[in-house]
From TrEMBL:
It is a multi-pass membrane protein. It comes from Comamonas suwonensis. The chain crosses the membrane at residues 30-47, 78-97, 139-159, 179-202. InterPro entries: Cyt_b561_bac/Ni-Hgenase, Di-haem_cyt_TM, Hydrogenase_cytochrome, Ni-dep_Hydgase_cyt-B. It is found in: Cell membrane. It comes from the Bacteria. Residues 23-212 form the Cytochrome b561 bacterial/Ni-hydrogenase domain. This is Cytochrome b/b6 domain-containing protein. One of its GO terms (biological process) is respiratory electron transport chain. Pfam families: Ni_hydr_CYTB. Keywords: Cell membrane, Electron transport, Heme, Iron, Membrane, Metal-binding, Transmembrane, Transmembrane helix, Transport. The keyword Cell division does not apply.
Length: 218
């Protein structure tokens, strides 16, 4: 008597449904919005601090500053600073550990940046896939990360100059650190303006950052 052995059927896994995965994980969205809140508070309170001791022959309109007076502005500034430092470190750590930093922002090449920049100026740069950053976006986001580090380091010199003498000297002294801090913050403001313009032009990116998934297009 012969026995017929029937091999179990193997189920072949189909392709991973990328659409089912969130474009931005929850931790990324939370840290992103907290970083944005911290930056806005620091900028507006920083403008009030600047007005108390200007570096250049102009002042910031009081209506767009935060704190009401120097003491109040300093309190807002330091509170937002700690939020930015701890939340920013968490954001950076999770990006590195999860592999998202390398996956999202690299590779990046000067030729690719130039190509995508020219395409953007022509209005031909595609935003069809929110999972993929173009070279201009990669460069901008990497620049912001580095710029925020410069802001924190120069801010430490302005806050605790005596306690950080080596850092103070590396930044060219207290007065030069003030200018570094000012221009680094100005660069963040310029980025925010461009970022908001791009969000207005491609509003689905805002919905993606809120919901985690890109809205369906008809």
């Amino acid at each position: 008597m012969t026995r017929t052995i029937i091999a179990p059927k193997t189920v072949q896994a189909g392709p991973v449904d990328l659409a089912a995965r969130p474009v931005h994980p929850l931790w990324m969205r939370i840290t992103h919005w907290l970083n944005a809140l911290a930056v806005v508070i620091m900028v507006m309170s920083g403008w009030r601090i600047y007005d108390a001791s200007p570096i250049f022959p102009f002042s910031i309109p009081a209506v767009i500053t935060l704190g009401g007076w120097l003491g109040g502005a300093l309190q807002w500034h330091f509170a937002a600073m700690w939020l930015l430092v701890f939340n920013g470190l968490l954001y950076l750590t999770l990006n590195i550990v999860s592999g998202r930093l390398v996956r999202k922002f690299f590779p990046i090449t000067p030729r690719g940046v130039l190509h995508d920049l020219l395409e953007a100026l022509k209005g031909k740069l595609s935003h069809g896939d929110p999972r993929q950053y173009n070279n201009v976006q990669k460069l901008a986001y990497l620049f912001v990360m580095l710029d925020l580090i410069v802001i924190v380091l120069s801010g430490l010199v302005l806050w605790k100059s005596v306690q950080f003498p080596v850092l103070r000297e590396l930044l060219g002294g207290y007065e030069f650190a003030r200018r570094i801090h000012f221009f680094a913050m100005a660069a963040i403001v310029a980025f925010l303006v461009v970022h908001l313009v791009m969000v207005a032009l491609v509003p689905r990116t805002l919905l993606t950052m809120i919901r985690g998934r890109a809205p369906k297009t008809s």
